[in-house]
Write a structure and sequence with these properties.
Number of helices: 23
Helix content: 40-55%
CATH architecture of the largest domain: Roll
Number of domains: 4
Structural class: alpha+beta
């Protein structure tokens, strides 16, 4: 059965979220007895004094690794990926151990009959709903479920499924054990329904923080920064951390390495073109063994590689194209079929302008910049030149804004709609998406697809290239020991990079996960120089520049700057609020009078304002402002209310509900959802507190 095959692929590690809005805890289950394993006796760590055998941790890590390989066939398992999986495995062990402690604490158990009843219930556990629901109706397909349960071949799989079900049921019991509210009030329900569906009109004066004056008008003293740090110390809690300087010698394949791969594929090409079994041949010869009878369009290649393949005069069944260089690899394509897809792909370039839609100042600036770019385009300035100058998308800007070929579903809907409704050569926009404003140039469409088998070889550094890089790194390391790190880097014209703070089992910005880097950092003393650290990406020589084992972020220059900015913001906010409060309390005061007396202020009037998403037509999305509006009495000038970028004075007009809305029906639907949300929010907060107060000793090497 196809559904059982899908389950087998997913069951080793199944993720399910108990609450999309509130519950951050994700429950993992790997189909084995969690309470212990046999094997190694050394410890991975301790959780509230309970020893975690390394074998237990290692077993979970292996399950993550197997799941990764199943989900990413042919992908290389790099040391960075391994470190990320190790961290996930450890966090899973911690969460599961703490959950088991809570089950014991609250006396939560489970009878076999409860599992059977849950599987047969109208609303079965999530793992069942995910894998046995009819896509058309959303209802559980009972025939498919029963057939899968009775199939003898699925015996071991169902034992794993039952363990997942048991954990979900026990967590549900824990949620009920923790709940302090067994009901929600009619007022709460009515308030939520009313806000969700209400549309209201309002007039308001938005006042940004800049109205208070320049930042320099609000100086912050050193003792204020220290007090803020002390008062908010829990916000700055962190694990032991390190900082370092480093010089990096990248392992970049040489032209000779590239040529060697190309020549090797040229030799293979002749054989591949012959009467070989494609499936077997690709599995043996390719770095991507899944490349058998795959369907490609230009979107599956870099622009230059796609041009070489799809513009080839030999693009017909039976021909072999390549080797073609494409994004750090060479590809040899054996064409099986060429056809025309019903869904075209497109190629486009864009200029991205980022801005904060809630900031009137930002909106005005981006509007002016859009007009400037439009005038330059009309004057004949090349789009590519303007993209390089103005676009905030630096990755595409260097290529004149070119984002390459893409299918409709690869871009955000607004961007795709603009491109696929235009004609080649058209310049459209500005188009607003979640990323900002886009001015788009449509450069082409294509519907050609091909079915092919392919051999791929990644261009990797040769032993000669690796040895050369290692020698350079060793020479620098020896020189740095003798003459000093900075002096040696300067004399060799090498860039000294700095890491951000990083923990023992955390990614090192900007390096990523790297076991050798963290191993050096957590053994060294401040100022120590590392040996040459060899990784897949290249060679590092590091100097430890900072250690922090206090359990809190150090009050360094960077943190002081962040706190200073927050304090300035608070002071400006207080000043704006005070000014507006004085204005609002004047007898007979109106928004129009306030705006008339202050040229920097203006009145915004909007209808159909939505609480559900904070949208104010003709203005922006400002959820704090709309939230405040929803609680105001109609027709009265408000005191200052917070906005996303300052404060506002508001007069709410009429509030309306959609015609035909049945409030009783909506209230009845919201009541159980609100109760469940309250229970699960309580559980999420409770478990976060449990984890925070747990004594977790990570003893992994």
């Amino acid at each position: 059965m196809a559904v059982m095959s899908s389950l087998r692929d997913k069951t080793h590690i199944i993720l399910y979220t108990l609450l999309a809005a509130f519950l951050a805890l994700i429950v993992f289950e790997w189909g084995m007895n969690f309470s212990g394993f046999t094997g190694k006796t050394n410890q991975a760590g301790k959780i509230n004094g309970k020893s975690i055998p390394f074998a237990q941790y290692d077993e979970v890590y292996k399950e993550y690794t197997e799941n990764y390989r199943r989900s990413n066939p042919g992908a290389e398992l790099t040391s960075e990926t391994e470190l990320g999986l190790q961290e996930q495995a450890w966090n899973t062990i911690v969460d599961q151990t703490l959950l088991e402690e809570q089950f014991v604490k609250f006396g939560i158990g489970l009878q076999d009959q409860e599992v059977v009843e849950a599987l047969d219930s109208p609303n079965p556990p999530l793992v069942i709903r995910q894998n046995f629901s009819d896509p058309a109706t959303g209802a559980v397909d009972r025939k498919k479920l029963e057939s899968a349960r009775r199939d003898p071949q699925n015996k071991q799989l169902w034992l794993q499924v039952e363990q997942i079900v048991r954990r979900e049921l026990k967590i549900n019991k824990l949620i009920r054990a923790l709940q302090t509210l067994d009901h929600v009030t009619d007022r709460e329900i009515s308030d939520i329904v009313g806000r969700q569906f209400s549309r209201f009109s309002a007039s308001f004066i938005p006042v940004p923080l800049s109205f208070a004056g320049t930042d320099s008008s609000f100086p912050v003293k050193e003792e204020e920064i220290k007090k803020y740090f002390d008062d908010h110390k829990e916000q700055f809690k962190q694990v032991s951390s390190r900082k370092a300087d480093f010089v990096f010698f990248p392992l970049t394949p040489s032209s000779k390495d590239s040529l060697a791969v190309r020549k090797e594929l040229e030799t293979i090409r002749t054989e591949f073109a012959g009467p070989v079994n494609d499936a077997d041949y690709v599995k043996v010869q390719s770095d991507r063994p899944t490349g058998i009878n795959v369907t490609y369009s230009r979107a599956d290649f870099s622009p230059s590689a796609g041009e070489s393949v799809f513009s080839s005069a030999n693009l017909k069944p039976g021909t072999v194209i390549g080797p073609i260089a494409d994004r750090g690899e060479y590809r040899v394509i054996k064409v099986k079929q060429v056809s025309s897809s019903a869904q075209p792909i497109a190629r486009a370039s864009h200029i991205l302008l980022r801005f904060n839609p809630a900031s009137r100042e930002d909106v005005q600036k981006v509007r002016e910049l859009t007009m400037l770019i439009s005038k330059q385009l009309q004057a004949g300035v090349p789009f590519e030149e303007l993209a390089k100058k103005y676009s905030a998308d630096t990755a595409s800007a260097v290529n004149g804004g070119d984002v390459g070929w893409f299918s409709k579903d690869r871009m955000v809907p607004e961007f795709s709609a603009a491109v696929f409704n235009a004609r080649p050569g058209a310049i459209v926009g500005p188009v607003q998406t979640q990323f900002g404003l886009h001015i788009i140039k449509v450069t082409g469409f294509d519907q050609t697809t091909l079915v092919c088998s392919e051999i791929v070889r990644k261009i990797r550094p040769s032993t000669e290239t690796i040895d050369s890089g290692r020698r350079l790194a060793m020479a620098f390391q020896i020189n740095a020991k003798e003459k000093g790190f900075d002096k040696s880097a300067a004399s060799s014209r090498l860039t000294v990079n700095k890491t951000a703070e990083f923990g023992k089992h955390m990614p090192v910005a900007p390096i990523g996960y790297n076991e050798k880097v963290t191993a050096f950092a957590f053994k060294a003393s401040e100022g120590d120089l590392s040996d040459v650290l060899e990784t897949e990406k290249g060679f590092f020589v590091m100097r430890l520049t900072g250690k922090n084992d206090t359990g809190y972020h150090l009050l360094d220059k960077e943190l002081k700057s962040r706190i200073n900015a927050e304090l300035v913001r608070e002071k400006k906010g207080a000043a704006v609020e005070k000014k507006l409060a004085v204005m609002a309390k004047v007898p007979g005061q109106t928004l129009e009078k306030i705006a008339a007396q202050n040229t920097a202020l203006h009145v915004v009037t909007a209808d159909e304002i939505r609480w559900s998403d904070g949208f104010i037509p003709g203005y922006a999305v400002d959820k704090p402002l709309v939230e405040a509006m929803s609680g105001l009495d109609a027709g009265k000038l408000s005191l200052p209310v917070k906005t996303s970028d300052g404060y506002a004075l508001v007069v709410v007009g009429k509030k309306t509900l959609p015609a035909g809305l049945d409030l009783k029906v909506e209230n009845a639907g919201v009541a159980p959802q609100l109760l469940r949300a309250k229970q699960e929010q309580l559980f999420a907060e409770y478990f976060a507190s449990v984890r925070k107060n747990a004594k977790i000793e990570d003893l992994r090497p």
